[in-house]
Amino acid sequence: MFSLKLTLKEEKHYFLLVKKVLVNGQGMLADLGVPLSIFNKIKSGGKACVVTCLFLFKGEVVGMKKNKVMLVDGMALLFRAFFATAMSGYYMVNSKGIPTNAIHGFVKHLFTAINTHKPTHVICCWDMGSTTYRTEMYPNYKANRGEPPVELIPQFDLVKEVVEELNIPNVGLVGFEADDCIGTLSSELSQHSEVMILTGDQDILQLLSKNVTVILLKKGYGNYAVYNEEVFFTEKGINPMQMIDLKALMGDSSDNYPGVKGIGEKTALRLLQTHKNIEGILENLSSLTKSQRQKIETDLKMLHLCRELAAINCQVDVRCSLEEAILTIDRMKMVNKFQELELKNLDNVLEQDCVFPAEKYDKTTL
Fold first, then answer.
1. The pTM is what?
2. Which of 87, 113, 280, 286 has most Cβ atoms within 10 angstroms of its Cβ?
3. Is residue 156 domain-shared with residue 19, that is, in the same domain?
4. Which range has the worst mean pLDDT, 45-59, 160-174, 217-231, 345-359?
5. Residue partners of 18: CB distance under 8 A and separation at least 6
6. Per-residue pLDDT tens for 43-52?
7. 362 phi/psi in degrees, rounded to 5
8. What is the mean pLDDT of the chain?
9. Of 103, 116, 50, which is closest to residue 74 (Cα–Cα)?
10. 86 and 184 share a domain?
């Protein structure tokens, strides 16, 4: 019988975990989302390959669904997890003297999201230092943020080690923010896959598109506000790309850029709903109130600068293939890393079938 020459990771994902082959009436294989390298292997097998696929699928012929890629804003999860317990002075210091509260909470957030939203692929994106092209454009960008707490600093590198042991790619680029990496990967991957962005940062909402949804973390674990283009428009009355101009007009106190002084969110939304974008507003200054016109004319240079600061760069030099991002967590590698860091009390999220769909989780190993 014909045998596909797939790697163990490919075989586990494409034949044991996700039934992703569609056989039409003529017995031909159709490419409806399988990465090209995998499709070519299947396609080259011809009729014998179809028989093999059907054998592995126990005779079931199923419709192919799009890949579901989850892009994770790593820093958003890590900081949220840290401050959730740090406010009460609880840092989960292990026997080596290393705080682990942020890592522990990160894992809970990550696996809870995987269990809830069921991605087939996961990629984790990271900030790579506080100096970026935005701070070069505007030195006060995020200058209102203090140094990270000393208890959090050792967890920055350790959490990436944990992610690596979960077989999840870490992506980041010096000089750019995680948002830029997410924007770039989202733009590329959404052409052939469904993309879900997990974050706590509303700036990411500008990336919403036909195949891109944003999952905003809310208080606690497993609580989300899920946005698509329709939900965003219903809430704001503008489209996602207009959010860049919204932030340019009203500024962002969190990122420490002012926008146009005296223009708040309500006024900015009304202006964009009427005039579409900053160009439209400037072309119709005479129709604005005297106060609005004076404010915009006074801060015109800052308005254009803030627009550049607010826009996520979707052309960053980062790449991650679907093959690299397949969600195939090796339970023993994970357990060994968790034991090394002395992470405990994670049974509730680790025993879910979505995390280990090919095998039942044995909680006695932790």
1. 0.81
2. 113
3. no
4. 45-59
5. 120
6. 565 544 544 4
7. -100, 100
8. 85
9. 103
10. yes
